[in-house]
Every structure is written in C-alpha cells, then in structure tokens.
Design brief:
The chain is an alpha/beta fold and 335 residues long. It folds into 2 domains: 11-153, Rossmann fold, CATH 3.40.50; 168-334, Rossmann fold (3-Layer(aba) Sandwich), CATH 3.40.50.2000. The protein has 12 helices and 10 strands. It has helices at 21-37, 59-62, 103-109, 121-124, 141-153, 167-176, 199-211, 228-234, 254-262, 273-281, 294-297, 322-334; strands spanning 11-16, 42-47, 68-70, 92-98, 113-119, 182-187, 214-218, 266-270, 285-289, 304-308. Strands 3-2-1-4-5 form a 5-stranded parallel sheet. It has a 5-stranded parallel sheet with strand order 7-6-8-9-10, with helices on both faces. The two termini are 35 Å apart.
Length: 335
C-alpha cells in the first residue's frame, strides 16, 4: 500500500470530537504512533466540542508528541458551518485526519484547507484514501485510529510504548520503588461500579504476592484515597506510593502513575484509566473484564493477558477468582 505524497515535515491536523480523560488514554497509542510516523512534522490536535484532556490532566503524557492542542474549537456541530467561512480560516495543512464518524461533522471538517483528508465516516466515503476491498474495521478505537494513520504512511502503524517521561519523575519513582524487589502494580479503581473487581479480591492477591516474595504496589488515584486505610490494614505488605508525601506536589499527575508503574514487573487493573496508564508505562498487564468488551476497550499493552468474567459463567466482575488473577500474574512474570 502506497502512502501519501507528504513533505518530510508535514503540517498535520487531527480532529476529535469529545476528548475526555478516558478518550485521551485510549487515543494515546495513536498519538505516539503519529509522532513516530512524522518525527519532524507539526502535529496539531483539535477538539471540536469541548475541552481536551491533552491540555490538562494528560498534558504531561503528550509533551513532545503534539506541537499544539486546541480545545473548545467549536467546529463540527452545526449545519450552518457548511455555509460559513472555512474553519480555521487562513490556515492550511498537508494532512487532516478526522477521527470521528458523525457525517455532518465530517462534512464540516473536510472544509479545512488541506492537501489530503482522511476519514472513516460512512465507510471512508469522503476520504482521499480508502482501505483495500474487504477491509474490516477493528472494534478497538485505538486500532481503528492506527489504521487511519497506516493509510497516510503506507505501512502498518503500531503504538510506540512506553511513553517518554521527565528524568525527575524517573528519579522520584526509583526513590519510592528502589531496585531489587519484584513489584506488582495493583490498580483497584474504575469509573463504573460494575467494572470494579471487589477490593477484597485485590487484598487477597496482594497478600498472596507478599507471601511469595513480591511487593504489591497499590496505585490509588484521587477517587480512591479513602480506601487506603482499610486496604493498608488488610494488606500489611502493600505500599501506596501515590500517597507518599514526596508525590503530593504532583497532584496525581498521570505521568507520575506511569513512572511508578514502569518500576513494576507486572500490573493488574480492570477496564479503567489505571489499566491504560500501566500499559503506557510499558509494563505487562493483567486486564480484568466483565460487563465491557475487551476487544473494544482493552489497552494496547506490550504484554497483555485478558481475564474475562464470562469464563466463570457471567459478566459480573466478582465471578473472577483471585487464583486466576494470580496465575495470570505469574505467567507474565515468567514470560
């Protein structure tokens, strides 16, 4: 497959609609691959319908990957935009990549001045380049975006994990998790109650790891801080680096979690932001799924084992036994 005839340092605009934290974590492998594909390019990320997590919570993770993040651009929502001045009038781009599939929005975004336009909306109807006959759209959004990039470059795109981190964060993580022990990251939080594995199961896993010479590392974000006291009482050997005084000044920045996860030999998380952060670190991951679809939402981890509740007869997370998770951890540690 031939790629587009782009300059060595192309000006590339990527359009997204909503761009919340969860969306940003799912799209992070695409951003990494985008920079890898165009190392000298100017990469501009435009969120048309609200704030972008890449301007706030996830900004440290895209530092050096994106040249500009424009949010609340108010592009792509109203039919009247089809008859008004072009969006971002006065600017031109070598390539515009439309990552969403609402056809009206695609019509509006296509009005941006560009040499090439890529969009998967309505089976690539308005895209300047289309996939070969028989193409099957991946269920996972991250894979779908990587396929769009492959159309531009003419070669398969893969996430370039792990993400780069500031040296000060690498040093901080090394101080909190010094070399020697085998650390296993446990991220018990999840946005929806139905996606959470019971805390008692995390305790069971933590205690079993400790009995076998591993060090359980509990990664508790701002929404899980209230769990620390009970978890610490039940899992005596677990450590809680995100609650360490040396980390407070970072206010739960995403890259701190990534730096800590990178010190671990494996991690465990449900379908959650914590799982995507562990994946971004390059650490191997046991990903727990129940009511949600791993084919669509599983992180693009360098080493991934998915454990599905359906194996035990239903979609409820509590069906997943701790023994199965411990077995998966050991499999990753020995691989």
């Amino acid at each position: 497959m031939a790629g587009l005839d782009l300059p060595r340092a192309p000006r590339v605009l990527v359009y997204v609609g909503l761009d919340l934290v969860g969306d940003g974590l799912i799209k992070l492998p695409f951003v990494q691959a985008l920079r890898h594909a165009f190392p000298q390019g100017e990469l501009i990320w435009v969120a048309g319908k609200g704030a972008s997590a890449y301007r706030n919570a996830l900004a440290p993770l895209v530092a050096g990957l994106l040249d500009a993040v424009v949010d609340q651009a108010e592009i792509g929502s109203r039919i009247g935009e089809l008859f008004s001045a072009r969006p971002l009038a006065g600017q031109a781009f070598d390539l515009v990549i439309d990552t969403q599939r609402r056809f009206l929005t695609t019509l509006i975004v296509k009005r941006l001045r560009s040499d090439y336009f890529l969009s998967g909306a309505l089976d690539f109807l308005l895209s300047d380049v289309k996939p070969p006959a028989g193409y099957q759209r991946p269920r996972a959004l991250a894979r779908e975006l990587l396929d769009l990039l492959a159309l531009a470059t003419g070669r398969a795109s893969e996430p370039m994990s792990p993400v780069a981190l500031a040296p000060e964060l690498e040093a901080l993580a090394a101080r909190l998790l010094p070399a020697g022990p085998v650390y296993v990251a446990l991220s018990p939080g999840a946005g929806g109650l139905d996606k959470r594995w019971p805390l008692q199961n995390f305790v069971t896993v933590a205690n079993s790891l400790a009995q076998n010479g591993r060090v359980p590392v509990m990664l508790l974000g701002p929404d899980e801080q209230g769990w620390r006291e009970d978890l610490a009482a039940a899992a005596h050997d677990a450590i809680f680096p995100l609650q360490h005084p040396a980390v407070r000044a970072y206010n739960f920045r995403a890259d701190v979690s990534v730096a800590l996860a990178r010190r671990c030999a494996a991690g465990v998380a449900a379908d959650s932001g914590g799982g995507h952060l562990i994946a971004a670190s390059g650490t191997r991951l046991v990903s727990l799924f129940g009511p949600t679809d791993p084919e669509k939402f599983a992180p693009l981890a360098t080493g991934l084992l998915v454990v599905k509740a359906q194996r035990w007869g239903g979609s409820e997370m509590e069906r997943i036994p701790p023994a199965a998770v411990l077995q998966a951890i050991e499999e990753l540690l020995l691989s």
